[in-house]
Amino acid sequence: MTYEEFADARLSALLRYAVMLTGDPHQAQDLVQETMVRVQLNWRRVARSDAPERYVRRMLTNQFIDWRRGSWARRVLLRGEPDEALPAPSDHAQSAVDRDQVWSWLSRLPRRQRATLVLRYYEDLPDAEIAEILGCAVGTVRSCISRALATLRAEYVEVC
Amino acid sequence: MIEDDLRAAFARREALTPPTGPVRAAIDRAVVRRRRRRLRLRLAGTALAVVAAALAGFTAIAPRPPETANLLATPSPTPTGALNVLLLGLDQAGTGRRADSVLLVHVPADRSRLYLVSLPRDLLVPIPGRGTDKLNASFAFGAGPSGKDLSAGYRATRQVVAQLTGVRIDAGAVLTYGATRELTDAVGGVSVCLPTAIRSYHTRRTYPAGCQRLDGAAAVDVLRQRYGLPDSGLDRDRNAGRYAAGLLTRVREQGVLTNPVLLSRLVTKVGPGLVTDTGELSLPALVSAAGNAASAEPVAVGLPVRYTEKQPYGFRLDPALAPGFLDALRADRLGEWTAAHPKQVTGLR
Fold first, then answer.
1. Which pTM does this prediction carry?
2. What are the E-state strand segments in B20-98?
3. Is B149 strand, coil or helix?
4. CB burial of residue B6 (10 Å; 0-12, 13-18, 19+)
5. Which of A45, A79, A103, A153 is most worth mutating to test chain B (most B CB atoms within 10 A of its CB)?
6. Of B13, B193, B267, B276, whose Cβ has the fewest other Cβ atoms within 10 Å?
């Protein structure tokens, strides 16, 4: 597989994944760009791995988790929340607000926990694969998810 | 429940995903920029002049006035036995400077000729305190992050080369781009015979196949090129050997080696870009030893290596040829070895 074929096939999926990780389309774009630049420069190594897609996803996830180290992440986000680009809620107003709150609480989670939730509930990956992407044990993934969910539930209780 | 809310929240954000077209273009642009930056950092190679080194290099200490006096005085015992001189060509100034051209000049005990042994910069070697890394990195480890301490960088590389080859390094010199340029111009240009045409990646100049005289700027340009050459870095090392041989010829023709006044004038011209170490030997003694050996055409030979296709990437000693070669180097029998292995010898004409 060449880099071009890979980008044709996977770039939009990676962008979606990055949006879920960062919660912001601009940061998602930066994150994907930074990762894909490295992918392209080191394409031979990436292509030689068993599953290039998973390899790249792992690079992207690590980049996200470590982003304070990178210069692109030092920028300050000045846009207010919630995002105006969202489709208007079509159902009951209060329930829409509640659900948006889930999104804003997400941003307060540690990055690693957030990444775990995205991989579990957006990408629907099995625990074993999540563990591989994050480079940790399966048990760590499970405890990560349950801790993140517990945090979100506690927020729920406070609001209700 | 909360899991469902999460799924729903994620699903609704899919609409935020930016279009791929502009991202793709931005990635490609950034890759081009990054490649260029990488090149700029790495390039180099300069192989500098190395050999001159063999000759003029020794003199480099001479620019300081007391040394010059010493040089002209000349009464010191000429060393007997084989000598090994390490010449390092540095890449561009900046942080993490590396020695991209590593040439070991072997002066046999019989002083019959000089052997120019090039060591590939991508050779994987044990570096004390740093595990295994490329040969050119040893200079950067020694020179420190600012890349300013050329003597410390030289000492680090000397230790690694001595360990690798098992020979004592008696003297050495470090050349920057600037020193190579000055040196080349000071001797009135150097003749180099290229086996294939070279198009400079840096200046877009083209150097045709065949023999030509290069001035300082052109010599540095040629010594930096490795892209587009059939054997890449190894061919660059061979060109460094060819340049060194040409420089030797030039220096000999002008009588620099036998005339201390000319020698000290040359050294003064090259200036501070040249750092030398003559160890326990005196400068005149070294020059006289090298001068005798330099009267015959030198033999340029590459350390036999093989590329490894697994990590860490780089060259390793060729298990079939390297032990014999290194034994010959240690036992001062390079003449026999190069006669038996003509393929390892770089054509100079």
1. 0.55
2. 83-90
3. coil
4. buried
5. A103
6. B193
